[in-house]
Design a protein that fits this description.
With 86 residues, the chain is mostly helical. The chain has one domain. It is 90% helix and 0% strand. It has 3 helices and no strands. α1 packs antiparallel against α2 and α2 runs antiparallel to α3. The longest helix is centred in the N-terminal third of the chain and has 27 residues.
């Protein structure tokens, strides 16, 4: 039960951060902000993936963890690019 609340909070929080970063990107047109926005959107996708799993059991546990790991690698790579971009 507690993990369900945690996943729900992560999804809502990532949607809020993605929305804020979209507004920031529209104002600044900064490539760094664009990368951060993409990273937050990947967190939204990850939250949706976990929510679907919680309510429907549509994915196998292995598929869920592989997808989650791939999204984490993508998020880390994008944050690295945003950090290194001049």
């Amino acid at each position: 039960m507690l993990e369900n609340l945690l996943y729900a909070f992560i999804l809502v929080f990532s949607i809020a951060l993605a929305s804020i970063s979209v507004v920031a990107f529209r104002r600044t047109k900064s490539p760094k902000i664009a990368l951060v926005t993409i990273a937050f959107l990947l967190f939204v996708v990850k939250g949706i993936l976990f929510s679907i799993q919680l309510f429907t059991d549509a994915l196998s546990e292995e598929s869920l963890w592989i997808g989650s790991g791939l999204l984490d690698i993508g998020i880390l790579g994008i944050i690295f690019l945003a950090t290194m971009k001049r």
